[in-house]
Design a protein that fits this description.
Blueprint: H1 3-7, H2 11-25, H3 34-50, H4 55-77, E1 99-107, E2 110-115, E3 118-123, E4 132-140, E5 143-148
Parallel strand pairs: 3-5
Antiparallel strand pairs: 1-2, 1-4, 2-3, 4-5
Helix pairs in contact: 2-3, 3-4
Length: 149
């Protein structure tokens, strides 16, 4: 065995190792779609195992495989843009549109309602205790504006 034999590496080994390294890197950088680039490299390594390909066509095939795998990945897992709806700005914003009963009558524009185990200061039209109200907006952080439901 000569020194030249020790350092000659088949191209498919390089593609397989690079692909597996990219797939492993996805665990450290999740969401960066390195998995699809890695799978393209692994696929090219599998192809090169059976058919020797020159460097330029191999790079072009790799680029085409990346596009195909990214497209498939987006179709299977969906776009990052179509994720879950944004979280409400605050706990008070999460109440908008929900209905509650007044714990304290609204007099001169202010009253209280119970939400779970806490009370919230509300602003709105004068209404009696026990009236059903719907949260319409958030005024000052913890104060909610209500309307008759």
């Amino acid at each position: 065995m000569t020194d030249l034999d020790l350092f000659s590496v088949h191209p498919y080994v390089v593609w397989l190792v690079a692909g597996l390294a990219l797939c492993a890197a996805e665990t450290f950088v999740p969401g960066a779609f390195l998995i699809w680039i890695g799978l393209a490299a692994v696929a090219l390594g599998g192809i090169e195992f059976f058919v020797a390909i020159e460097l330029t066509p191999a790079l072009l095939l790799f680029a085409a495989l990346v596009v195909v795998f990214v497209f498939i990945g987006r179709r299977v897992y969906g776009s990052l843009d179509s994720g879950a709806p944004p979280l409400p700005l605050s706990r008070a914003h999460a109440l908008i549109g929900k209905e509650f009963y007044l714990d304290e009558a609204i007099e001169r524009g202010y009253g209280r309602m119970r939400v779970g185990d806490s009370q919230w200061r509300v602003a709105g039209p004068d209404l009696p205790k026990g009236a059903k109200v719907r949260v319409a907006a958030v005024d000052d952080g913890a104060q909610v504006r209500v309307e008759k439901a």
